[in-house]
Structures
1.
Amino acid sequence: MAHLKSDYTSYVHKNPSRKSCEQTIKKILTREFEEFGENRHFKQASDFMVYFESLHPASASLTKQVQRAVNSLNLPRDENGYFMINKTAEEYAAERELTRLLLDAAVQDLSNTTPVLLKTESWKREYVMHLLEADSYVNSISPTMLETSNGILIYTSDPESLLIHLSSFIS
């Protein structure tokens, strides 16, 4: 009977595997994210040690195993250095790049505009669009234009005036 007890004791004191540590760390961070919407407690492997040491005896090998798990997860960190569980490193890098690129951009609501299609041959679309962009009146009533497969799509706040203005070139 004593033999069984010592086997059980050695099993209980055995460090968790790296995979097991990874799963636990993911659970901890997921719970943190679900509860607070962000992580504000875990920046490094040592921050997880309180949890792991509550289940396993503190040791250098346990610390090393948790560090390996954190490194293996390759979690992105936010601007304050906290681990992020809700995004991959690639997603976070893409978001940061998009943020950098859009710093001087502006968002314009086009819901109050009407699209008008100016049908034209493909070989002259680019040049016609260039001339329309240079036209101050078109610019005053049209926030944007797009080349399409059938012509140029012009979004305008005053479709009637745009049509009259464009007709003046055709007549």
2.
Amino acid sequence: MAVWQEYIDVRKDGVPSTKDLLYEYGYCGYIVAEAKKEGKEALLPEAKRYVARFREHVEAQKGKLPAGHYEMYMSAVYVYELRLHESMRPVKAMSLAKEATRLAPDDPLVLSYYGTSLFYAPKPFGSKEEALTWFEKAAERFEAPRWEYCWTREATQMYIQQCHEKLKKH
């Protein structure tokens, strides 16, 4: 993840591309998870800084992003802020994630994100069974050649395996 951090820190123009936002989204998820681990609390200020910057970048791109991406990324911002105790908007996060799928029903990034939201959300908001259906929809669309090197494609496959493993246990 140090490479991703360097990649998003190197950009000096202040106007992130859609690709840049995808890396920021991934890096924020990583740094927030790390900062929440026991003994890693010293990372909390850094995690908060990256999430705040991600929020600024997403808000700056409102109206310029592909359909559903603004909602997807703002949902992620709310989830990260919730995990960092910066805001408490879990219902808003889920409703934005769902709205993103309405706006972009064939976008594998959006579909995979919604699956991720359902995967991690506690009941009654989420479920592994429902997450699996969204991951499978995303995986079908990730088969297009343009997604061959997208990190989210691989992550979606990992989540499909995890869903199958968790569902076998129940």
3.
Amino acid sequence: MKNLLKGAVVMAAVLIANLIVGIVCNMNGIDLNPTVAGTVSAVSAMLIYHGLTKNGKN
């Protein structure tokens, strides 16, 4: 159950960070590719989650 909560927290944090980056870029006139932004968000969330759960096992 702890890993499920860690995953939910990590995903929420990554989505909030992605939202903030998107807002800042839109305010400055930079258009982000949604496919790339989604892929980077998913991969970064997986890496952060793996790092959190790996340290918990040892």
